[in-house]
Design brief:
8 helices; D-amino Acid Aminotransferase, Chain A, domain 1; about 290 residues; binds pyridoxal-5'-phosphate; alpha+beta; nine-stranded mixed sheet
Length: about 290
């Protein structure tokens, strides 16, 4: 069988076939998890919610005292070139920034050149079974650090949470702290109350400020829907009318069971359907 054509990736100023792109064994992203990432969806060959992802990237890098080696406009141009060169119509662009490579030491040289890597990944995002069927969620303890607002590459707690979820036949883990859901292992968590309120945690250090969340809540507000930005408990989620999650690679999908118990009637609900329609229309209209 002929080998698949290698993807073109971007690494530190160069566009290269993936098998020719190499990162140092001394890279601090590898040795310390000293890095930041972003994932931007691609639909019809265009970037979704791009300004939101670039704003969050800048913020994350600033919060760890780093500096992007190029502007976000240049990053978006690189993303567009990767999408074009790899003929990507649907999937994601992954970006990773790390502090750079030097001999191992907790402290780093102030003039260290950062590592910047971007690659595309083809994936069906829009027409997926989860939109009709819903996802199953497993409740797990939130074992992460206290700056979850920074999109750090240190994802071991989420890897372990998803492993537990999978072992229980679930699709996503909802992480819980002090009885309240913080967020999904790689998504923002919502419930819809019986009086049609959309409930999700407010932004702060406890969760990642989701770009899809920001877009969805703006659209919901424009429609006059009621939003409560507050923590919700596992018990409240179990007795909610609907539940759903958002993320760049899922957009918005319904959650139809939590720890094996159906949410509402166990089917994708009307609020989810309304939000999904609003979001998909807006995502396409604002894609770049
Ligand atoms: C922990 C966590 N929360 C929320 C999200 C959703 O963020 P976004 O909508 O920007 O993809 C993600 C996405 O990876 C995540 O990892």
């Amino acid at each position: 069988m002929p080998a698949a054509t290698p993807r073109i990736v971007y690494l530190n100023g160069a566009f290269l076939p993936e098998n020719e792109a190499h990162i140092s064994i001394f890279d601090r992203g590898f040795l310390f998890g000293d890095g930041i990432y972003e994932v931007t969806a691609v639909l019809d060959g265009k970037l979704i919610d791009s300004p939101l992802h670039m704003a969050r990237l800048e913020r994350s890098v600033r919060e760890i005292g780093g500096t992007l080696p190029i502007s976000t406009d240049e990053i978006v141009a690189i993303e567009k070139r990767l999408v074009a060169e790899n003929a990507l119509t649907e999937g994601v662009v992954y970006l990773q920034y790390t502090r750079g490579a030097e001999d191992r030491n907790f402290l780093y040289s102030e003039d260290l050149a950062p590592t910047l890597l971007l690659f595309t990944q083809a994936k069906t995002l829009e027409h997926v079974a989860a939109v009709e069927k819903g996802l199953k969620v497993k409740i797990v303890a939130d074992q992460r650090w206290e700056r979850r607002d920074i999109k750090s590459v240190c994802l071991l707690p989420q890897v372990l949470a998803k492993r537990i979820a999978k072992a229980e036949g679930c699709d996503e883990a909802w992480m819980v702290e002090d009885g309240y859901v913080t967020e999904g292992a790689s998504s923002t968590a919502y419930i819809i109350t019986h009086d049609d309120k959309i409930v999700t945690r407010g932004n702060g250090h406890a969760t990642l400020p989701g770009c899809t969340r920001l877009a969805i809540l703006d659209l919901a507000r424009e429609q006059g829907l009621t939003i409560e930005e507050r923590p919700f408990s596992v018990d409240e989620a179990m007795s909610a009318q609907e539940a759903c999650l958002t993320s760049a690679s899922n957009f918005i999908v319904p959650i139809t069971s939590i720890d094996g118990k159906p949410v509402g009637d166990g089917k994708a609900g009307p609020m989810f359907k309304r939000l999904r329609t609003l979001y998909m229309e807006n995502a396409r209209r604002t894609a770049v």
